[in-house]
Amino acid sequence: MRKIKTTVIQQAVSELCIRANTQLRSDVLSALKIAYNRETKAIAKDMLEAIINNAIMAKRERLAICQDTGLPCVFVELGNSLRIVGDLRRAINDGVKTGYKKGYLRKSMVTNPLLREGVSFTPPVIHLEFIKGDNLNLTVLPKGFGCENKARLKMFLPTASVVQIKQFIIDCVREAGSEACPPFIVGIGIGGTADYACLLAKMALLEDINKNKKTDHIVGRLKKNLLSEINQLNIGPMGLGGRTTCLGVNIRTYPTHIAGLPVAVNISCHALRSATIKL
Amino acid sequence: MKRVTTPLEKRKIVSLKAGDKILLTGFVYTARDQAHKRLLLAIKQADRLPIDIKGQIIYYCGPTATPKGRIIGSCGPTTASRMDEFSSALLKAGLCGMIGKGRRSKEIISAIKRYQAVYFLTYAGCGALLSSFVIQCKIIAYPDLGPEAIHRLYVENFPLIVGIDSKGGSLF
After folding, report:
1. Structural domain of residue B57, as residue ranges?
2. Would B172 be classed as within a structural domain?
């Protein structure tokens, strides 16, 4: 059985935190460039130019893309035939701490959510999945809270139509408006339980926004329709109008119960940041 | 492009219209949720505020740590509407301008009108870029709040757009 030391994991997480926060994902950057060329409204074009220049500067100067360096979400895919030598949770936690410190990122966590005390880099939120093989895949998604505050869940009736679901998602985006830093990337989770649908929506943000993964007909059409209808909302970059409201829609589904149909929406600001490593 | 300096003068404020592009030079004070809560408490208890806000601008911003050799880290705007419940009292106390991102409530729009103030927008999610317009940065109050402490920034040609003007004209 392959073994991996937690010191290796800690180092990897630390580097992922810095990379995710300072280097905008290439799929997002290329979507921004396409949007810039297509946009016709002057103020929207100006904003898109600033966003692109910001990403270039952040990478060059190793600065955080956004001062909200997010709540660090760490996704772990653990191979069945891999043995972790040491405390995995601690390794991830320490990796986040060292990465955020080394990268001059922001302490955006408060230890006590009600007293709002104890400003800190950690703890991250960790999600664990099991995979075949002996690899360990780690992804860090620093999630800014301007957009995380706009996450929504609705438990639909199992007899609900796709039109109703689509309307709910569009309403969520409209409500997010200028506060969540448009243009958005919209992650959608359909199925599972209430909590799992929310996770699916967030995991949908990890997928390449320019690739059309193989999916069933109904999901493919929903994705396409959502992208075009959201872009007709005229929210635009910074909420000042324009045709660029959404850079991409990703949908993840999971089987669900006969009595329900959970639908979750997790919106990302234009600074969708994540970084992955295979160990 | 209009040039604006701080402290703001009423004459200048009333000349600004929603949609105007601005280059700001002068001091601005960062404050977000927790700093607002404390400022309001100080006003309620008739305590002296840690900053004289008359004629000043509050920037809704919590910067990252400052990398070695730099003046400030990434420092873009945060969502302004979270400060809506506090802003009227600050405007009443003499605050003249706010910088943030996103919409404001109806109450704030009328308070902006009443006190002849202005709400600016700046490039949201562009904290790295915006750091290049900051010439000085100093924590001057509530250091225990970490990134939410009040920082006094001296900015030069900081890019803004008038979001809500003193007559209640709004871009949203």
Report:
1. 2-164
2. no
The interface pTM score, or ipTM, of the predicted complex is 0.94
In angstroms, the CA A16 to CA A95 distance is 9
Residue B171 in any domain: the answer is no
Residue B61 with chain A: CB contacts under 8 Å: 67
Cβ(B4)–Cβ(B12) under 8 Å? yes
Q: Do A266 and A61 form a contact (C-beta atoms < 8 A)?
A: no
Contacts of B124 in chain A (CB under 8 A): 146, 178, 181, 238, 269
- How many domains are there within chain B? 1
Residue B144 has pLDDT above 90, yes or no: yes
User: Which residue of the set B32, B36, B38, B101 is catalytic?
Assistant: B36
Question: Is B151 tagged catalytic?
Answer: no
pLDDT for res A117? 86
What's the CATH number where B76 sits? Answer: 3.20.130.10
Q: What pLDDT digit, counting tens, does each position of A204-246 carry?
A: 999 999 988 778 899 999 999 999 999 999 999 999 999 999 9
pLDDT given at position A215:
80
Cβ distance of A66 and B79 shorter than 8 Å: no
Residue B23 sits at the chain A interface (C-beta within 8 Å) = no
Rounded Cα gap, residues B79 and B77, in angstroms: 7
**What is the sign of the dihedral through the CA atoms of A234, A237, A243 and A247?**
negative
What global pTM score does this model have? Answer: 0.95
Our CA-based measurement puts residue B94 at a distance from the nearest CA of chain A, in whole angstroms, of 26
Determine, yes or no, domain membership for B169. Answer: no
**Which of A118, A121, A119, A67 lies closest to A94, judged by CA?**
A121
Tell me the per-residue pLDDT of A95-130, one tens digit each, with 9 for 90 and over. Answer: 999 999 999 999 999 999 999 988 999 999 999 999
